[in-house]
Design goal:
By secondary structure, the chain is an alpha+beta fold. The protein is 31% helix and 29% strand. It folds into three domains: 60 residues, no CATH class; 37 residues, no CATH class; 46 residues, no CATH class. Strand 2 and strand 3 form a beta hairpin.
Length: 156
């Protein structure tokens, strides 16, 4: 789904192939406010007009126009994933909530985190490196005096 933005509001942008129109609705509000246009070029204009009309209507009714997101929601996971998340939070010395927030931030910002395990033959030679979940090249800084090394890498 494409998202339109105007005056701190977001709205959807969709095609209705049956009716041959572009349409959408305001997101994150308690009321249903829709808009449509005959062309893609006019959808942003109609969206902005819908936001302005919504704000004026809320003002005349004496109520808040936007339902804020509270930052609190329930997440249902399989028990094994729940356990893995909890173990990861213990390993990273942070709360389960912080682990879930980090995972969500990585997902939303399109950063993929990978675990890298290195096996070191002696104090200066890496015998092999495995990057789980990616075929992207691995970049290392100088590594010395390690027997086993675990790091977290990310790609922008």
């Amino acid at each position: 789904m494409n998202i339109l933005k105007y005056k701190d509001f977001e709205g959807s942008a969709e095609l209705d192939m049956e009716r041959q129109v572009c349409r959408g609705k305001l997101l994150f509000i308690d009321d249903l406010v829709t808009y449509e246009a005959a062309s893609i070029a006019n959808l942003q204009i109609e969206f902005e007009a819908a936001v302005d009309d919504y704000l004026e209507t809320c003002k005349s009714l004496g109520r808040d126009p936007k339902r804020p997101l509270k930052g609190l929601f329930n997440v249902r996971t399989p028990p094994e994933l729940h356990k893995e998340l909890h173990l990861r939070s213990l390993q990273d010395h942070c709360s389960l909530n912080e682990t879930v927030v980090r995972a969500c931030q990585a997902w939303v910002t399109n950063r993929t985190f990978h675990e890298i395990r290195l096996t070191v033959e002696n104090s200066s030679t890496v015998s092999h490196a495995i990057r789980y979940g990616s075929d992207q090249p691995i970049q290392f800084e100088h590594i010395s005096n390690l027997h086993d090394f675990t790091a977290i890498a990310h790609r922008n």
